[in-house]
Design goal:
The chain has 14 helices and 18 strands. With about 425 residues, the chain is α+β, with helices and mostly antiparallel strands. The protein is globular, with a radius of gyration of 21 Å. It binds flavin-adenine dinucleotide (FAD).
Length: about 425
């Protein structure tokens, strides 16, 4: 059943209802988790979508964002004041799932991850109580919710610091023919590790849209897209981005001064609704030439033209924050690789999932062993542990023991309370 919540009291009632009846409980905000954890069979789905108000105070540079809001609504409201925090790269993603998994977006090299701009949340816990979580109130839980996912309760409101960005920024996409991909990625790798924090962006190995504006030779073909966003004055950006724009040259250069909200919606068309999806991800210790070769080979052999490989650089402000400041680790990894399959026909499930798994397995050779929680599929407990590393996982587990010992919030990348074994045990403990 769906509990369409309009207020914190509704959320509390839904949590209490599920807990008292030992029903499975899921939380739905943007619906973008490819694991499908936001919905459940035979239980209660807390549907947060009506709790989507955003208010911005430009004086204190603060945004208050309700728990069911999408990024497009946050970007619109904050940009009215020329303010932003790092937000999802697709405007249709939910703030909650993304921010609680730490949140990666175009501005992260300048502003850190989404969770690095978090000031506090209002949280409804497993016992149906509403608490404030911040550096001052429940500080250990504040550490845990910045990267630990939806394990500790339902967030009804986020309070973020917002920062001057835009409303116009220099950004857009460079597009290169597939055969140039190796050289372009190598150039990007060598450039970005030395680039100023204002240079934000990443690489998407995709198919060029079969549209008029795309030059005929690359239309519909495997291409390398480089999305750029200079998070500073546009005139400075022209100089800073020159080494990337002059390399090649690209088949298409759409980098120009544009509204920040346009950059935030640039890739929305790449993930239409109704697709079948599977993905995996790894943080890399180093983007070696061999790793780039493996990515490029997999790009051209994708079974589905809707599949893509993202190469997201780290560094900048992400790495300037101490590793143990939040539950998100991996702050020193230079690259995050996200392998995404999207296709339409269930008859093609096997071949597309196999493509992701094969490339994921090849990437292990270059990986740190850590993974990005927001980009994991349902890959088992060991992978969730590895995503955090054992010390962080155990610290999160201690929080889980304290705030959700019966694992009511388990439809997520689950941090298991101590002694937790299976669904039956959960029902017994809850009852
Ligand atoms: C097209 C697409 C683009 C993406 N782009 C990015 C990106 O740029 N950066 C990035 O970091 N990730 C990105 N992701 C991954 C995304 O952050 C995660 O899938 C995230 O979980 C989605 O959040 P949601 O609210 O949309 O999802 P939902 O499916 O609604 O929720 C996912 C999980 O989040 C938790 N949750 C949701 N709402 C709440 C709440 N109010 N309180 C507590 N827990 C809650 C629950 O555990 C739930 O199972 C993308 C995903 C897709 C499909």
């Amino acid at each position: 059943m769906f509990a369409r919540c309009e207020s914190t009291d509704d959320v509390r009632a839904a949590v209490n209802f599920a807990r008292e009846r030992s029903l499975p409980l899921s939380v739905y905000s943007g619906g973008h988790s490819v694991t499908g954890h936001a919905v459940c069979d035979g239980g209660v789905c807390i549907d947060m979508r009506q709790m989507n108000a955003v208010s911005v105070d430009p004086e204190t540079q603060t945004a208050r964002v309700q728990g069911g809001t999408l990024w497009r609504d946050v970007d619109g409201a904050t940009q009215e004041h020329g303010l932003a925090m790092t937000g999802g790269r697709m405007s249709t993603t939910g703030v909650a799932g993304l921010a609680l998994g730490s949140g990666s977006g175009w501005l992260e090299r300048k502003l850190g991850l989404t969770c690095d701009s978090l000031r506090s949340v209002q949280l409804v816990t497993a016992d149906g109580e509403e608490i404030t979580v911040s550096e001052v109130e429940n500080p250990e839980l504040f550490w845990g919710i910045r990267g630990g996912g939806g394990n500790f309760g339902v967030v009804t409101e986020f309070e973020f610091d917002v920062h001057p960005v835009g409303p116009m920024v220099l950004g857009g996409m460079l597009m290169y023919p597939g055969p140039m991909a190796r050289d372009v990625v190598r150039n990007f790798r060598d450039f970005i590790v030395k680039a100023p924090n204002e240079v934000c962006g990443g690489i998407a190995m995709i198919s060029a849209p079969p549209e008029e504006f795309v030059p005929e030779p690359v239309r519909g073909q495997p291409v390398l897209g480089m999305i750029l966003c200079y998070a500073g004055p546009a005139e400075e950006g022209e100089e800073a981005l020159r080494p990337l724009r002059e390399f090649g040259p690209p088949a298409m250069d759409l980098v120009q001064p544009m509204p920040y909200v346009a950059i935030q919606q640039l890739t929305d068309g790449g993930a239409p609704e109704g697709m079948r999806n599977y993905w995996t991800a790894d943080f890399l210790a180093d983007l070696s030439d061999e790793a780039i070769d493996a990515l490029c080979e997999a790009h051209v052999s994708r079974p589905s033209p809707m599949s893509q490989i993202l190469v997201i650089p780290g560094g900048g402000a992400i790495g300037e924050i101490p590793e143990d400041a939040t539950a998100f680790g991996q702050r020193t990894s230079p690259f995050n690789i996200h392998i995404i399959a999207g296709w339409q026909d269930s008859a093609d499930d096997e071949v597309n999932v196999a493509w992701v798994k094969d490339l994921g397995a090849k990437m292990k050779e270059y990986a740190t062993g850590g993974a990005y929680l927001n980009y994991l599929a349902e890959e088992g407990e060991d992978r969730v542990r590895a995503a955090f590393g054992s010390d962080t996982y155990e610290r999160l587990q201690a929080l889980k023991d304290r705030y959700d010992p019966a694992n009511l919030f388990r439809l997520n990348q689950n941090i298991k309370p101590t002694g937790w074994q299976d669904e039956k045990e959960a029902v017994a403990v809850t009852a």
